[in-house]
Amino acid sequence: MTASTSFLGFPDHLTDGRAPRAVIFGAGHGSTYPGKDSTGYALAPGAIRAASQEETSLIGHWDFDLGGPLYDGKLDCCVDAGDIPTIMHDNAGNRALIEAKTREVLALSAVPILLGGDDSVPIPFLAGFSDHGPVWVLQIDAHIDWRDELHGERHGYSNPMRRASEMTHVAGIVQVGIRGVGSARLSEIEAARSYGSRIVTAREVHSQGVEAALRHIPDGARVIITLDCDGLDPGIMPGVAARTPGGLTYTQVIDLIAGVGMRARIAGFDLVELYPPADIDGLTALTAARLLVNVIGTIIRQA
């Protein structure tokens, strides 16, 4: 991958032999349900990278979200490793590739940042942290994703938090932005509550602020943030397959990211469910790129 096509023009490696602080990689396909087509989601990593290009020359400028330049006066320390070669409906193979790449990044003592892909890719991403626990999961989403199986598949986009709850290295789950009817049946709500998931609705965040979610994350915890684009309001991120009114605002999400960085530590981040065919004037991709800038800035500031 060349700098002209990478996120913010990041290189694919650091030339001075240093280990990177964060490594971005994409995975277009995860575990696609039978009869479903995930090719639209596979366009997302490229759309996000393209949306970041206008800011490539501005890395050294003052960023008002971060309160300073992206790298905060430190050496350049992030790389974009490109996309791993996933294949639609090669579900087991895709999971193996995503988990292996996550482990590879963690072996560098770097923070992995995964660009999906639909909401099935977080399952192998989270599994890749099995030797780096305990970790907490902060899910930003309109849906709780607690289905046990759907169409015979247990690792699809309706299943990630159910599978995460079964991972022994996951110490706890906070789910924020939940709203509407969603896809949850009573049995899934009961399973989530039985596990001890902290479910924070979008209305609670709107009325109480992001502390409604952050208060559930222990001080000093290592946290993996998994961000489904439909967690934000569709007026901000329209390029999703399940538009649901009443979602989180851009400011609320970057405050959640910054809040995790201040009280805990971002150990990993994934962004999923961006569906470019439904985007409007590239708004969703642009917002996703801005969110990634905030994640990277927060990671650098917690180093």
Name the features.
alpha/beta, Arginase, Chain A, 30% helix, 17% strand, globular, 303 residues, 9 helices
What would your notes on this structure say?
- By secondary structure, the protein is an alpha/beta fold.
- It is built from nine helices and eight strands.
- The chain has helices at residues 44-52, 91-107, 122-127, 160-165, 186-195, 202-208, 211-214, 250-263, 283-301; strands spanning 22-27, 78-83, 111-116, 135-140, 170-178, 198-201, 222-228, 265-272.
- The chain has an eight-stranded parallel beta sheet, sandwiched between helices.
- α1 packs across α9 (283-301) and α8 packs parallel to α9.
Write the layout of secondary structure elements.
Elements: E1 22-27, H1 44-52, E2 78-83, H2 91-107, E3 111-116, H3 122-127, E4 135-140, H4 160-165, E5 170-178, H5 186-195, E6 198-201, H6 202-208, H7 211-214, E7 222-228, H8 250-263, E8 265-272, H9 283-301
Outline of this structure?
The chain is α/β, with parallel strands linked by helices. It has helices spanning 44-52, 91-107, 122-127, 160-165, 186-195, 202-208, 211-214, 250-263, 283-301; strands spanning 22-27, 78-83, 111-116, 135-140, 170-178, 198-201, 222-228, 265-272.
